[in-house]
Amino acid sequence: MKFSERIGKKEVKIEIQIDSMDIELRNGLWNVISIVFLEPMCKVDWLPESGYENSVKAIWFSFFKEPIDEVSMVTKSVKEQLRRRFFTWNYLEVYDFIDFLISMKRTEFNKNELVKSFNIILERELSAYRIIDNSLVPITNEQEIQTIEKALSDSKKFNLKGVNIHLSEALSKLSNKTNPDYRNSIKESISAVESICQQITEDKNAELGKALKKLSSKLPIHGALEQGFTKLYGYTSDSDGIRHSMMEETNLDIEDALYMLVSCSSFINYLISKSIKLNIFKI
User: Fold this and answer.
1) What is the 3-state composition of the chain as percent helix, strand, coil, each rounded to the nearest 5?
2) Lowest CB count within 10 Å: 74, 170, 262, 272, which one?
3) Residue 47 burial by CB count (10 A; 0-12/13-18/19+): exposed, middle or buried?
């Protein structure tokens, strides 16, 4: 987290790309297309001899919906035409093209390698989309982003410093493009819930499991919600859990960390709203 964000002078921003595409994401996606599809095609000059003529004509016929007799028979020219279009498209057009490539039934290029490489770039550059079962699908949405932002904003508004710090750290560790730390992002998300429960129950030493049980004496909380977060806490605290120092990180990815951040933010918003109604937190 940046210094200005840690001291509260600058709002922590959620960098997941939902309705936009920065140049790093665009470049990464193009590089995948170039390496997996276009560079092998361009090993020979003449398209009919490259073995990629059917895939190229399918793009012109079904995606561009333009006359296939306008397709250049020079492979490097085909690559340049695709490149020129790709870097002038808006983000939706880029995703439409990617969705088309991965949905093609017969291809000369290695589609499995294309899908695997696309997903690596989409995760690395914090895109809100992934390829699942040969379809591009969203892994988050604007409402989930607003849930996180509200929890960050309200925890600051009601001087819940521990909650705000843990949420900010969870977001920072998830959003770090060069060195994401999903394990500790999940830990920070759960710690944010623990912090607000300690604040409400006025027991600063209570671990989340104990604090959840004490909540009912302060405010009414739905039993299913209490049980749900008790189980989540158990998952993050047992010998195989996130908070255990020997836990390996190989099975954790951005989807796990994002799910936990959204879930914990939503629960925090719920507890803040309940606490305002009972005058525990003053507006």
Assistant:
1) 65, 5, 35
2) 74
3) buried
Q: Write the single-letter amino acid at 149.
A: E
Neighbouring C-beta atoms of residue 198, cutoff 10 Å: 20
Q: Position of tokens 């909380």? A: 221
Contact 136, 129 (CB under 8 A): yes
Handedness of CA 151, 153, 154, 160 (dihedral sign): positive
Q: What is the pLDDT of residues 121-166, one digit of tens each?
A: 999 999 999 998 888 988 888 899 899 999 999 999 999 999 999 9
Alpha helices in 73-141 (DSSP H): 75-86, 91-103, 111-124
**124 with 176: CB under 8 angstroms?**
no
pLDDT of residue 251: 73
114 CB-side CA count, 13 A = 25
pLDDT mean across residues, the chain = 87
DSSP 46: B
Indicate the helix (H) or strand (E) that contains 138: strand 135-138
- The share of the chain scoring above pLDDT 70, in percent, equals 88
